[in-house]
């Protein structure tokens, strides 16, 4: 099997070295870029499997890099940012990033996120853009029939809960922002809808999760959004 190639975009040399050294010891192939312009060029010419992207770059904001890459590719992009502001993460996710880590981060955590991104990408490629049946742990969704089952039992979902479940399922592994979810479900992103979204999430989790206080399928990213995770 070909080694996955990771494009590491980071202008801070010690951080870049830490990441590339870790990738090397774990037998990944890698490329590196110090500027946004170089990042876009390398992404276009080498088509890496995953991009690690620092948001604070000397020539351009990292969010611009995400927008440019997304104009031609769905390659997973994991944002690594020193910024602790939620707005920056939200902007990056809305621009099309898949995941984010805040500095200082542990390399173990970074490698765990990388494995998730690679697995998600290979599942998407195997399945094609749209599959008729979604399976994750005990959850199964038959999109054609508009039916969700849990352990073989039909889930009694309201139309909004079903839409919400499908949206999260189709983006398994990816953090979806409140804004993105409310726009996809209600066609707009009003603040008031974020409150509605929380209510629907509570009712959906009661039906989906064995223990809604310790969710196994849908993760909460406080102040940011939600993510469906692949259950073993
Ligand atoms: Ca930086």
Distance between the termini: 23 Å
**Can you tell me the number of structural domains?**
2
CATH class of the largest domain: Alpha Beta
Q: Based on CA inertia axes, which overall geometry fits?
A: globular
SSE series = EHEHEHEHEHEEEEHEHHEE
Mean pLDDT, as a whole number?
90
Low-confidence stretches: none
Radius of gyration equals: 18 Å
Helix content: 40-55%
Number of helices: 8
**Largest sheet, described in full?**
5 strands, parallel
Number of strands: 12
Strand order, biggest sheet?
2-1-3-4-5
CATH architecture of the largest domain: 3-Layer(aba) Sandwich
Strand content: 15-25%
CATH superfamily of the largest domain: Response regulator
What do you see in this structure?
It is a single chain. This protein has 232 residues and is an alpha/beta fold. It has 2 domains: 5-125, Rossmann fold (3-Layer(aba) Sandwich), CATH 3.40.50; 131-228, Winged helix-like DNA-binding domain superfamily/Winged helix DNA-binding domain (Arc Repressor Mutant, subunit A, Orthogonal Bundle), CATH 1.10.10.10. The protein is built from 8 helices and 12 strands. Helix 2 (36-46) packs parallel to helix 3 and helix 6 packs across helix 8. The protein starts with a strand and ends with a strand. The mean pLDDT is 90. Bound molecules: calcium ion. The site of calcium ion has 5 residues, from loops.
């Amino acid at each position: 099997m070909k080694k996955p190639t990771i494009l590491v975009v980071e202008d801070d040399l010690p951080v870049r070295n830490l990441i590339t050294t870790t990738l090397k010891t774990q037998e990944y192939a890698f490329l590196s870029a110090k500027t946004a312009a170089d990042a876009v060029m390398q992404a276009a010419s080498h088509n890496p499997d995953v991009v690690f992207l620092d948001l604070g770059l000397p020539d351009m904001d990292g969010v611009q890099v995400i927008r440019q890459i997304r104009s031609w590719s769905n390659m997973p992009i994991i944002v690594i940012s020193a910024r602790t502001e939620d707005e920056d993460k939200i902007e990056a996710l809305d621009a099309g990033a898949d995941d984010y880590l805040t500095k200082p981060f542990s390399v173990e955590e970074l490698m765990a996120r990388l494995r998730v991104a690679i697995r998600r990408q290979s599942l998407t490629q195997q399945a094609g853009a749209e599959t008729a049946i979604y399976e994750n742990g005990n959850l199964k969704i038959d999109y054609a029939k508009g039916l969700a089952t849990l352990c073989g039992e039909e889930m009694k979902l309201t139309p909004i809960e079903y839409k919400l479940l499908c949206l999260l399922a189709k983006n398994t592994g990816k953090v979806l922002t409140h804004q993105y979810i409310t726009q996809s479900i209600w066609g707009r992103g009003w603040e008031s809808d974020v409150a509605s979204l929380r209510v629907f999430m509570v009712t959906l989790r009661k039906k989906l999760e064995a223990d809604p206080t310790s969710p196994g399928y849908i993760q909460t990213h406080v102040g940011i959004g939600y993510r469906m995770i692949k259950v073993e």
